[in-house]
């Protein structure tokens, strides 16, 4: 069941340690994943191909509000985590409450840190820590036409025009 793939932060750190001890290549990515769309699923599938295990760190509701504004997230953190955990390409999901995952990344030191190409390499949080530990940072191209903010804007426009 996918719920077993959802780990508390300390469990996630321990699981990554276990995987690394077992010689497994750990891939890490993070984000809000508010309204899951094909851009997300393609991105996560490509990220998973870079190693043996993919861990997705999801921003908490509080951190999403701080980053995206008071109307976000659209979907609560537990539900976002559950949907991500249901994906075959995702091995583990954890929820973090900080604005950035720097501390978590520094504790885990995954072999591969992945972000969308909409982030410049110098903007990728945790890049320095991962590279200093011998890992690599990979930017995956963004799928054109898919954006959570764009989907929300379209929905709001449709609601407003029909009112």
Any chance you could write out the topology, listing elements then pairs?
Blueprint: E1 6-7, H1 9-21, E2 26-31, H2 38-48, E3 53-59, H3 61-68, H4 77-85, E4 92-96, H5 102-108, E5 112-116, H6 127-132, E6 136-140, H7 148-162
Parallel strand pairs: 1-4, 2-3, 2-5, 3-4, 5-6
Q: What's the story with the biggest beta sheet?
A: 6 strands, parallel
Order of the strands making up the biggest sheet: 1-4-3-2-5-6
Q: Mean pLDDT score, rounded?
A: 91
Low-confidence stretches: none
N-to-C SSE series?
Answer: EHEHEHHEHEHEH
Strand content: 15-25%
Q: What structural class do the secondary elements suggest? A: alpha/beta
Instruction: Using the CA coordinates, give the radius of gyration.
Output: 16 Å
SS field, number of helical segments:
7
The rough form would be described as globular
Q: Could you name the CATH class?
A: Alpha Beta
Tally of separate domains: 1
Q: End-to-end span in angstroms?
A: 41 Å
What's the name of the CATH homologous superfamily?
Answer: HUPs
Q: Total strand count, please?
A: 6
Question: What is CATH's topology name?
Answer: Rossmann fold
